[in-house]
Amino acid sequence: MRDGIVVVGAGHAGVQAADALRERGYSGPVTLVSGEPELPYTRPPVSKDLLYGDAEPEPLRPASFYRERRISLVPAAARGIDRDARLVHVSGGIVARYDHLVLATGARARRPDQPGSDLRGVLTLRTAADARMLRGYLRPGARVVVLGGGFIGLEVAAAARAQGAEVTLIERGDRVLGRGVSATTAAMVTEHHREAGVRLVLGEQVACFVSEGGGVTGVRTGAGGLVAADVVVAGIGAVPDDGLARAARLPVRNGIVVDQWLTTADPRISAIGDCAAVREPLTGAITRLESVQNASDQARYIADLLTGGTSRPYRALPWFWSDQGSLRLQMVLRSPAHDRTVSVRNGARTSVLRFDGGLLTGVESINDPSTHQAARRLLDRAAPTEAELAEVDHDVRALARQVRQEKVGA
Amino acid sequence: MPTVTYVLPDGSNQTITTASATSVMQAAVAHQVPGIIGECGGAATCGTCHVYLDRSTETFLPPGDDEEAMLEWTASPRADNSRLACQLRPSNDAAQLVVRVPAEQQ
């Protein structure tokens, strides 16, 4: 290989991929094309710590890392892929040649499309720059309207409320976190935010954004109500950045379609992280995850695959976390399916066990990091049965300890 | 400024001078000490910055509830001196620490 490996996108996935390539001894050129001017930084704080005062993003690696590991960090946006010539066009007329291309382009915030959505003060949140823009509005008494009761919306609501803003969260579904968690967990999360003083408006759509000449001053709901606003933050999901792949005639379907080896239809191009839509070979079902765990695990995997460290398909146990003020929600999901849940309370700690067909498929934990961690150890090995868990009063930690004992004994 | 010596599983070691209040995890990641991952960015959430605190001139508070809970499930065995490196922030300018990096982190 002469031309080396080009990684497009410098979020958790891209940076980890470049790092892991060097760690596994890859000695050819590594080019990391970043679309942002700053040193690549950690993303979870964008919707948490970076919404306070003058907090600065935490670099994923120091500047010296890129020099010492001979990773060319190109702070410019990729403009196009020429698959025949095996090169990436970068803005400013730069061209990066590749033997292998890793697309780690991530996802961008979905923008609302109702009338008035282009008004000043109607914001989305995805980057450090977005966080700097938003936090200028977060002060005592400011009227903040959050659209969407997903992870981002709830995290923003918590940070805004903690800074004394009057927060209204509008969710069109009949509960928060509708796609992500069980009804039991959603109810606890709802209670947490209501207690913190967030006004939750469920089952309402946004009809339009209102202005009195200038920036946004309110949100008109489908039912006709008007919610006054100094700023509106839309947390209504993310759209995978698959434009480069699409333009290069690679299959895209809510993300860049890859096989079990995270390889696109072009064997010299892979996709990892938020932008990757992994296709299940038998059912054709697509899985696309947006998480630090998924980005990091897929990045390490692709480095392994490209350096001959593995030939097996990608496999990892997905887990997530979301900090919403004093509430820490953590989840591990072996499969999203569940037909029954059992919640286990232990003082302020609660975990909800998800079962499907009598097998444990996932655990949602609220302020219960120990159970979360035990569940990760447990589910990484196999899915225990509901009967096994019933024997230990659904105490995930107890079962995980037993399994660990057996492993040590064996 | 505090100094932290990281002893790696192969017996080699690396000594880093850090800024006061920088965590032992941040210092390790910034200087590419292998085996300290810090995937969650220092929130005591992922358990991938487990170290054994072998020597320290500075006394740290014992692990809090979150850290304690994480330490039970570390990939390498827990010892009495197991800590999450993200929770160790030497603040004394003359602090000297020796931490051992476990064989496995995840």
Automatic annotation (TrEMBL), chain A:
InterPro entries: FAD-oxidoreductase/Apoptosis, FAD/NAD-bd_sf, FAD/NAD-binding_dom, FAD/NAD-linked_Rdtase_dimer_sf, Reductase_C
Oxidoreductase among keywords: yes
Keywords: FAD, Flavoprotein, Oxidoreductase
Cofactor: FAD
FAD/NAD(P)-binding domain residues: 5-299
Pfam families registered for this protein in UniProt: Pyr_redox_2 (PF07992), Reductase_C (PF14759)
Start and end residues of each Reductase C-terminal domain: 319-399
Protein name stated in the entry: FAD-dependent oxidoreductase
TrEMBL record, chain B:
Gene3D superfamilies: 3.10.20.30
InterPro entries named in the record: 2Fe-2S_ferredoxin-like_sf, 2Fe-2S_ferredoxin-type, Adrenodoxin-like, Beta-grasp_dom_sf
Cofactor: [2Fe-2S] cluster
A Pfam family annotated for this UniProt entry: Fer2
UniProt domain 2Fe-2S ferredoxin-type: residue ranges: 2-105
Keyword set includes Iron-sulfur: yes
Protein's UniProt keywords contain DNA damage: no
Assigned protein family: Belongs to the adrenodoxin/putidaredoxin family.
Protein's name according to its UniProt entry: 2Fe-2S iron-sulfur cluster-binding protein
Keywords per UniProt: 2Fe-2S, Iron, Iron-sulfur, Metal-binding
